[in-house]
């Protein structure tokens, strides 16, 4: 009797671990200052742009591609006729 209970608890634990692993592999995070698009193996790139946060995707079928959209300062050298600028 006790052996069957422990066997059933082990089976339930294995099932919970497998479901947790699948759910964990189907999540991705888009950080602040980034955006993502989803590449689908069957239909190509999706039209929607995904914003910040945690999102779902279908493993082995879809793949998130994350882009950095933050502005970056750029120094432009300028030659002037005077020293004062």
Could you explain how this protein is built, in words?
InterPro entries: Band_7 (IPR001107), Prohibitin (IPR000163). It is found in: Mitochondrion inner membrane. One of its GO terms (cellular component) is mitochondrial inner membrane. By secondary structure, the protein is α+β, with helices and mostly antiparallel strands. The protein has one domain. The protein is 28% helix and 28% strand. It is built from 1 helix and 5 strands. Strands 3-2-5 form a 3-stranded antiparallel sheet, with no helix packed on it. Strands 1-4 form a two-stranded antiparallel ribbon. Strand 2 and strand 3 form a beta hairpin. The longest helix is centred in the N-terminal third of the chain and has 24 residues. The chain is elongated, with a radius of gyration of 25 Å. The mean pLDDT is 90.
